[in-house]
Amino acid sequence: MRKTPKAVAGLLAGVAMTTQAFAGGVCSRAEETAGVKAEILQQQLMVAAYSCHLEGAYNAFVVNYRPDLIAADGAAQNLFKRASARGEADYQTFKTQLANDFSMDSQDQNDFCDNAGAMFEQAAQHRGQSLNDLMAALAFDGDTPFAECQVRQAAITQPADDGMVEGGTSGAVSRTAR
Prior knowledge:
The protein is mainly alpha-helical.
């Protein structure tokens, strides 16, 4: 029953492989990556609600994490809009593909439903915490259709104290009296 992290990682890898066409050379910012992963989780749990007769657990999940789910959806949607002029349509296609992929996975109802039940239990235990906290507890991590943007840090250099001061349009001037 505690196969959840491996099952989730495998499902995310499969989802990422089938949706590479959306990436289009655009990288995702941290909040967008989290939004896409939250959408993947929500789609998986929505399919589980119907396939495993866990509607009450899904409704509790949505009510508990509604503000985070709305924010995550907006971040994921913005990513798709940045990636393509067809961003809205691509995003809806992505969500439909997720639901279809999870529906196919649910054909093995024992494992799928056991894993979904464990995820809903974790969600209930993390009630009142953020969706990011829940995803960390679930070890819900893996590939998404977009590579994450690399964070760049600006180099800060100290100017040399050579007795010169940058000034106006005439360039450097000496600080020493003539």
